[in-house]
Amino acid sequence: xxxxxxxxxxxxxxxxxxxxxxxxxRGARLETTLLPTTLVAQxxxxxxxxxxxxxxxAAIDELAREGFLEPGRTDLVKSLVGIAVRTGxxxxxxxxxxxxxxxxxxxxxxxxxxxxxxxIAFAALLQxxxxxxxxxxxxxxxxxxxxxAARGEAELAVxxxxxxxxxxxxxxxxxxPPGAECAAVFSAGVSARGAMQAEARAFVAMLASxxxxxxxxxxxxxxxxxxx
Length: 228
Prior knowledge:
This protein is of the alpha/beta class. It folds into 2 domains: about 5-80 and about 185-225, D-Maltodextrin-Binding Protein, domain 2, CATH 3.40.190; about 80-175, Periplasmic binding protein-like II (D-Maltodextrin-Binding Protein, domain 2, 3-Layer(aba) Sandwich), CATH 3.40.190. The chain has helices at about 15-20, 35-45, 55-65, 95-105, 115-130, 145-150, 160-165, 195-205, 210-220, and strands at about 5-10, 30-35, 50-55, 75-85, 110-115, 135-140, 155-160, 170-175, 185-190, 220-225.
């Protein structure tokens, strides 16, 4: 009989890194589901088994308070939101807040993910900058916004830089500038109800180890010290 798989529900922001790090884990067979943070949380609350959840630190804390995850969390990486354009397209100026505002207002279309942490942060940023409702956004329910830019369906793609890097056919312009920076910490939590908690903790420990740091950096993420 095939042993049960360790089920990992992870934010799309870590898709590239998880794909490279998972083959190093020898503690159990892995079954990985990649979704935006809000959809991961929805599916866990709906009763799906996730032995390990990797989402925003705030979502981990909420799921732990609700009893779905063990108390505490393991912070893994800091991620920045940025902009990408189709390969060969002019690279817009986003070097200052004023330049970013001008670029966003001038763009014919800006692809944004509704369910991802980046989309939530971007909506809040537009409110703070006073340009909410003025930017011509193309909102997708989930997935990689850069795919729209690669196909020429959006002039700009906004998402976590790690997610932009995962899509061929685009060039990452950079992160939002100081004063408009959108950053998130993505963390791991272990199921409070699972039968594979030992394996889950071992997998999280591997992700938090120094050996994983270079892989995270190569995929546009900055490893962070344990904060909780």
